[in-house]
Design goal:
mainly alpha; about 300 residues
């Protein structure tokens, strides 16, 4: 609860991060529930627990979507506008409370209370800014709902297909290698090593985390390419999941190498040639062959 409270007070892309994570947990739970006989209510499931916690704590903050769909401006902070937004927010909050108490009457109030206490304190600057209730709980997402149609930056949908390979080429290349490795090897590719006890979908914690990283990378491309505002500094949100997935793949591949055996087979000679290769590439770049000439 505290983590989500601080997250929502930090930056509006937190909604994207929560959506990516929540949809992953919900999808994994739905698939496991379907394969497990579709019993309801389901038994103890950590995937369901995570889905409900993320969903119920986020639901009231999503009220600007309905406010906008009803034809009103979620950034209208007049008395009438705040009343309209407040009614919608309250409706979403009541649904969240109902689901949360159905899930766990003991734990959910503590989790939700912690998250919303943190958000209330920070949105209102420790109760010195009463308007922060509206600008924080509604305006945080409402601003970007309104700005989506503005499309600041005026960039095409394929903007990041051009920008990310230019600036984040290493995470991109190695993360694609990780996805290809997982697809080619299936469950073994996701596990990336010795099998461990299954926690969900027949995967261990390590395998499930690898699957999540691939999901994170894929949805990051989809969501940010769809979003109206496209700016170069947003590529950091691409590089983070791609770097983690790349590291996961390199660990799986390089972790299987017998380095002592390679050393005995002549690895020092190969390493000795690396500086020479670097110097050759440097000279090639600096001299710029074919300068002033066309092919």
């Amino acid at each position: 609860g505290a983590a989500l409270g601080f997250l929502f007070c930090t930056k509006e892309v937190s909604f994207i991060y929560v959506a990516i994570t929540g949809l992953f947990f919900a999808g994994c739970f739905a698939l496991e529930w379907w394969r497990g006989g579709r019993r309801w209510p389901p038994g103890n499931s950590r995937l369901l627990d995570a889905t409900i916690v993320l969903g119920t704590l986020s639901l009231p903050l999503l009220s600007p979507f309905l406010t906008k769909a009803l034809g009103f401006n979620p950034l209208d902070y007049s008395d009438r506008g705040i009343l309209r937004s407040g009614v919608v927010f309250l409706g979403f909050a009541l649904v969240a409370v109902g689901v949360g108490l159905w899930w766990d009457r003991r734990r959910w109030p503590v989790i939700a209370g912690t998250a919303y206490l943190i958000m209330t304190l920070l949105f209102t600057t420790f109760f010195t800014n009463g308007r922060g209730f509206a600008t924080g709980f509604v305006g945080s997402l409402g601003y970007w709902v309104e700005q989506h149609g503005v499309q600041r930056g005026d960039q095409p949908w394929y903007y990041y297909l051009i920008l990310v390979p230019m600036y984040e080429f290493l995470p991109l290349v190695f993360s694609l290698g990780g996805i290809g490795y997982a697809v080619a090897r299936g469950r073994k590719g996701l596990e990336g090593g010795d099998s461990q006890p299954s926690v969900a979908l027949g995967l261990s914690t390590r395998g499930l985390f690898t699957l999540f990283l691939a999901w994170w990378v894929a949805l990051t491309w989809v969501i940010y390419s769809y979003a109206g505002e496209k700016m170069p500094w947003l590529t950091v949100h691409f590089s983070l999941p791609m770097s983690l997935l790349a590291a996961r793949w390199l660990d799986a591949v390089l972790g299987r190498v017998d380095w002592r055996d390679l050393w005995r087979r002549g690895m020092p000679y190969v390493l000795g040639g690396v500086p020479l290769l670097g110097m050759a590439l440097y000279v090639l770049i600096v001299t710029r062959p074919f300068r002033g000439k066309s092919l």
